[in-house]
Structures are given as structure tokens and as C-alpha cells.
Specification:
about 800 residues, alpha/beta, 5-stranded antiparallel beta sheet
Length: about 800
Amino acid sequence: MADTRTTPADLTAAEEPRPPAPGPPRPSPAMRALTRLLVPVLALAVALVGVLWTSLTPAPAPASAPAGSFSAARAYPHVAAVAGGPHATGTAAHDRARDEVIRHLRESGLGVRTEPGISSDTGNGAAVAAWTQNISATVHGTHPSGRVLIVAHYDSAENSHGASDDGIGLATALEVARALKTGPAPRNDVTFLITDGEEPGLLGARAFVDHDTASAASTVVLNLEARGTSGRAVMFETGTGNAAVVPALGDRVPVATSLSDEVYRMLPNDTDFTVLREAGMTGMNFAVIGTSANYHTPQDNLAHFSRASLQDMGDTVLAAARRLGGADLSGTSHAGGSTYFTLGPVLVRYPMGLVLPGALLAVAALGAAGWYARRRGAVRARKAALSAASLPLALLGAAVAVSAVWPVATWLRPQWTGFALGSPYTAGPLHLAAALLTATALWVWAVVMRRRVTALEAGAAVTAWLTLCTLLSAVWLPGASYLFLWPALTGAAGLAAAARIAPGSPWHGALATAPLVPCAALLVPVGALLFDTVPTAFAAAPALLLALALATALPAVPAQTRRRWLVTGTGLGTAGALAALGAALLAGAPTASRPAQVSLLYALDADTGRARWASSGAGDSAWLDHYVGGATASLEGTFPSLDQPSRWHTGPAPAATVAVPEVKVVSTTRTGDVRRITLSVRAADARAAEIGLYADAGGAAVVRAEVAGQSVPGGTNRPFASDGWRWGLLLAAPPTGPGTRVELTLRGTQPLTLRAVTRTPGLPEGTLSVPRPADVTWSADNSGLTLVSRRYVL
């Protein structure tokens, strides 16, 4: 039998406490810092790569490049041939540009058609009728299933040289035509349409649509434009059925995002693509948008033209043309829509039909991850809700701070008020100031909140907002939903993974900041693109995207950040923003290469003989003050097109010999209270770009107008007019000679008061007593023009 007696030694051992089971080693402070910074550092690298890719242009290819490739060196002479000066529709310079285009197309071995036409636009204020001369040439396909239509325009704005708008599109089209002719014939026809009259109202495109006989459903348009003079080629708009055309970008990817498609449709902007899309065609719209301060001004010239941007546009369009030239285009416009975006040189796309299911998946993923995290005790719902409720305050603070940048900048540098698109020549420092103010607002919020919530609670709150943005955009802006979908899904996955690991793990913070990487890849490059696109006054819009991306870094902020770090970070961010603003102001002093832009018109009332200088108030310079002082007046009564602003800065101008608009009655017939009056309208100056006819609403009502076979509705097409001129008809590029026949159908027995106003580029010779200095130029709107008005009673 075994001995079971207990010894004193055994009793002593039993009474002694057992040591605790060994747990996981506590991470060192260095390890904690490393894991906390791992995701932010990775996200910073991703963001820098994305921003650089959206901004860096390729080196221009030399003239010795292979014949089948695009060469900016070969294409640039096409720009130089037409952009030596303004060449608005109807001018002699415009005719020379037309002849150059025809010559270059013929040298490429293409048959060229010149298509004179007359078209009108009645949907945007006063009706416009224009005499246009489109140019077209076709590389014929071997067995076409449709047509690729490459479109650019060759007219410029009135005072712009048009080197980029649209010299870049014109040169791209001509070089692509040459490159396509050097290789085997494509399957589909590739037609190059060089339109006229784009600037007055897309009138060349309208004339083309009126006479085009090809199938719109199997036509894919590549429209080439510019809203600036530098930067990457951006594909900013598509037509219906874009799922069939966007893949053509895969061989040479430009900057592209379906967000821009959504935004552009909400803006009042149009290009030739608008007309072609409304006619049932689909396709893609391309433009360069950098340095928008030069747009539609004399600064859009050869000196500011970017050959690197030309190379980027050309490479992109040539690759897309080849891809579409060999594709089956039958019924392309009836294909589905797609969401698309670029991750560096990779084009990502998926059907639009997956957008709403994706948003619902994000909602379900957040719900599941939140439930799991709460069940594990990793997240307190009340604290996460507190963090989520406070985020709009941070976003509002960032928006308010950024919105103050432009008013402060223009107060200190009033010359900047002359930039029509609201951004100076070098806008980078202002964008940096906006970014630093945004980061500062988010830093204050992050430090305050991390003293109250855990990293996982903070991550859950930001992921909730990303999920809400995903759902709302999926319903109202489906092309933008991808920006929030992938960060939201990543955030839900990170929340669930962090809740599963041990509470003291240093990886909690890293997993909670997981959405920061997709935000850096998606939101930051798009925000940078929007900073270049929107006026600086509206920089709060891209700043909000940046703020939401920065909010995902909240869990990386230490939980007990000391107060001095809050003050230090806020001070550094604010000081950096002020330094960036100061650098922008110092660099923004007017020079000959970056002149101040001002508005100044010569306006003559031919009835009284009174001539005035007039300025909209855009821009600021001592030279402008010499002609217009503090006096303001309404000019709409005599010059109906000068309805905005309501008060113009004016000053006396010397008399000058200028051509007066002539309106003569050719014939009149009457049936009851309906009169038909045939008028002969003449500018008496071959340089006049436009004759405007405006009818006073107080007289007989205009029922209809007929101009060279174009019927223009009567009634009210200028409802915004405050001085009675409620109907207007603009004759753009009217032919020289005895006069243009205009037939008006009037109803009523009262006489009709008509205002005829000519609009001519340039100021009358000898009227400037002080020549315009080199550091002053014309702004894009109502500048460097001569207006002459005369009243007629019919």
C-alpha cells in the first residue's frame, strides 16, 4: 500500500501562490511607434505617386520618332502655323488657318472636304447664327462596322492666339491622321472633323450634325479640347454606352475618372462633344486643364504652349483611335455604363450596375464588423457615435478656412480678380495653403477626439462616414461612388481584424487606419486634379475630399497627445499656410510673362456720338485707372450684351472713326396684325466678329426670325435682361458685302425698337493716350473689344 501521509514540506508548497501564466510580451515604445506610423507612411508614398502621375507629362518625342508613332516635334509646326495671333471665326487670320489645315491633311494623302454651312443655336440666351466652314478627311476602313470621329476646332476666341484652345487638339488630329496613314488601313473609317465656329456657340458642330448621314449609334467621337495650357491629358466626359469605349484607353492611359463625368454634367460648360452627344453619338472628351489663367486670353500663345502636353494628348488619342479603329462599333452607344478610374498607369473599370450593390455590401460589411467589434468589447458604440458626430465640425472648419484663401489673396493682390477662371498663373502655393489649412483643422479634431475615444472607435466612426458617402453617391452620383466604396470596405475589414486580436496589440492602430491607403490612392489624386480644375474661390470642394482622406489617419494619433503638441501642430500648419500664401503673393506680381489681366472696352453710342471706356471691374492696374475711375453706370440700355455686371466702371473716351451697324428695311408685308419685315444687316467693317440685334419688349412682339434658311424662335430668349431687351439674335462671322438678309415676323401694331450692336476685336487706332504696358493684358471676358450701338425703330 502506498504511503499517503502529507509531509510539512508538502503543506508549505501547497500554501505558496502560483506565479501567473506568462502572457504575450509587452511591445516596446519603438515597436508601437513603428506600427502606428506604418500605414500613414505607406499612404503618403501612395499619395505622392498618385499625384505625380496625374501631373507629370511625358518628354516630347523628336521628329525622328518612328513614322507610326506620335511626335510632338512633328505636330508642333501645325500649332505654330495657326497660332501666331487671334483667328476668330470670320477673320482673315481664320481663313489662313483653314488653308493651313487643308494643306496639311492633303500632304498626309487624305482627300479633304470643305463644308460651308449655316447653323444656329437657340438654347443659350440670345440666339446665334453663324456662317461656318468645317473641314473633314477620312482614313477609310477595310470593312467598317462604324466610324471613329476625331474632332477639334480651328477657330480661336476673339483675343486669344488659340495655341492650346484648340491648337493642341488641331495638331493632335493632324499628326494622328499622318500616323494612321503610314500603317495598314483600320477596320473602321476614321474621320477627322475640324470644326469652325466652336467659340461663338458650337456652330460648326451643329452644321455638321444637320447634314451628317452616317449612323450616330455606331459613331465614336474623340473630342480634343483645352481649358488651360499645360498638364496631363484628362479624359473628363463620356457619352452613353461608355462601357464599350472606355476600354480603348487601356493601351495608353490618360488621367480619367468617372467622377469628372458626373461633375461636368452639372456645369454650364459645353464643347463640340455636347452637340454630337445630343445627336446620339457616344465617345470621349479630352482636354488639358493646367494653367487655366491663360485660357481665352492673349497668353494662350506659342510662348506658353506645352509640347509635353501635346505629346501626352497625342499618345493617348492615337492609341485610342487604333483600338477603336479595329473594334466592332455596331450599336456602341447602346452598351452599358461603367465606373472607371486610373490607379497610376492602370485603368480600372467595372459595370455601373455594380455600384449600388457595392454600396449595399459596404453597409452590410460595416454592420457586421461593428457588431463583431462591439461583441468582442473592442468598440463602445456611444464613443464611436461621438467621434462620428464630431467629424462634420472638422470638415466645416476646413472648408471655412480654405474658403478664406481666395478673398484674402485677392484683397492683397487685387490684380488676380482679372482671371476669368479664378486661378492665378502659379496656383500651386495657394493649393498648398489650402491643403495645410485642411490638415490643420483635421489635426485639431484628431487630437481632441483621441483623448476621448480609442483607435478602433475612431476608425469605426470614419468608416461609417465613408460608408454613408458610398451609399449617397451610389444613388445620386454613381460615377463618384468608387472614391468611397473601397476605403469603406477596407475600413470594415480592418475593424473586424483589429477586434479579433489581443487588446494590447500594437497592430490595433495600424488596422484601424487601413482605409488611409485606398484614400491616398483614390481621393488624394482626384483632389489634386480638382484643385487644378475648380477656381481657387471654390477650393473647399477638393479640400473636403482631402479632409475625408486625412480623417482616416485619426487612429494613428497617440491617445494622450499632450496639449503642447496640439498647439505646436496647429501653429506649424497655420504658419505653413501663411508662408505658402505669402509665396504665392510674391510670385504673383505682374510681369511681362505673367501680366495682370484687365477688362477694358471702347463703347460708342452712334445715336449720340458719345464714346466711353468701360470695364467690368475685372483686374486692377494703374494703367486701367487712367481710363476708368470710380464712376459706375449701367450700360445695358445702350449695349444690351453688357448686362453683367449691372454697373460698369466708365470713363470718357475720344471720338474715333469706327464702322456703324447698318440696318435697312428691304420690304414689309402685313396680314392683320402680323408684319413680315425683311432687313439688310451690315457691319460695314470686315473685322467685325459679330452683329447683335436686340428687340425691345415694349414694342411689337417678335414671333420668328429667318436668317439664311435658319429659323429662330421669337418670344423671350433673354429673360435675364433688366432693360427691356428680352429677345436677341447674334450674327457671328457675318459675310462681307451688301448685307445679310434677316426676316422678322412681328405681331402687334406698335413699332418695334431694335438695337444693332457690332462687336469687333481690338480698340480703335489712336484712342489709347497711354499705351498698354507689357505687364498688362486682356482678361478672357469683355476685354480689348470695340462695341458700336445704333437704335432703329421699325
